[in-house]
Amino acid sequence: MEPKLALRDVTAERAGRVVLEIPHLEVITGEVLAVVGPNGAGKSTLVQLMALLERPARGQVLFDGRPASGNALPYRRRMAVVFQEPLLLDTTVERNVRSGLALRGVPAQEQRRRSAEWLERFGIAHLAGRSARTLSGGEAQRTSLARALVLEPELLLLDEPFSSLDQPTRAALIDDLDRVLMTSRITTVFVTHDRSEALRLGDRVAVLM
Q1: Is 93 in contact with 132 (CB distance < 8 Å)?
Q2: Is 139 in a helix, a strand, or coil?
């Protein structure tokens, strides 16, 4: 299988100090690659590089075998990112899920259809009209996941999306995400500090030291 995303001899720096070095890493099309490592290992920096939100000091990020250089926007439109904090808009759950589709000019009827599907798949259809400000942590992260997946991305990047949740909420969300990823086969990078989560969701596991 061809890699959807690859990093070649990538180095990231902060204030002239190397914070991450990746000699070679590939994300194969259709797989879930789990990346596990302790705090300070550079996991979030790796997500920033993969999402083209940060440029490497050295090396290349390749998307579908081509260097993702120059204007990053066309590549970013083919990805979706979910962070540890949901970063929801101050509006309803349904409008949050539709927001990316609206920015991309998707017709309103199609926005409603696709958002309803993903609200249902993450078990939050009953919250569609609720203000995002009133959601629990688990409900907010479900909304964030639905907002990402409704875009039908070629690459999904998950940066420790469950780390701030309590254990029962985290376990339920992992079950639901596992089902979604198994049926959709969206190419996914799942970053976590929890080895059990990595083993549960990942087809392969990469370890940052």
Answers
A1: yes
A2: helix
- Residue 108 to residue 101: CA distance in whole angstroms: 9
Encode pLDDT of 117-145 as tens digits.
Answer: 999 999 999 999 999 999 999 999 999 99
Phi, psi values for residue 13, rounded to 5°:
-130, 150
Give the chain's largest Cα–Cα span.
49
Question: What span, in angstroms and rounded, lies between the C-alpha atoms of 117 and 98?
Answer: 11
Contact 35/46 with Cβ under 8 angstroms? yes
Can you read off the two tokens belonging to residue 38? 């302790």
Look at the pTM and tell me if it is higher than 0.90: yes
Structural contact between residues 117 and 135, judged by C-beta atoms closer than 8 angstroms? no
User: What strands lie across the sheet with 3-14, from one edge to the other?
Assistant: 17-28, 3-14, 58-63, 66-67
Provide the 10 A C-beta neighbour count for residue 3: 17
User: Which residues, in sequence order, are bridge partners of residue 80?
Assistant: 156
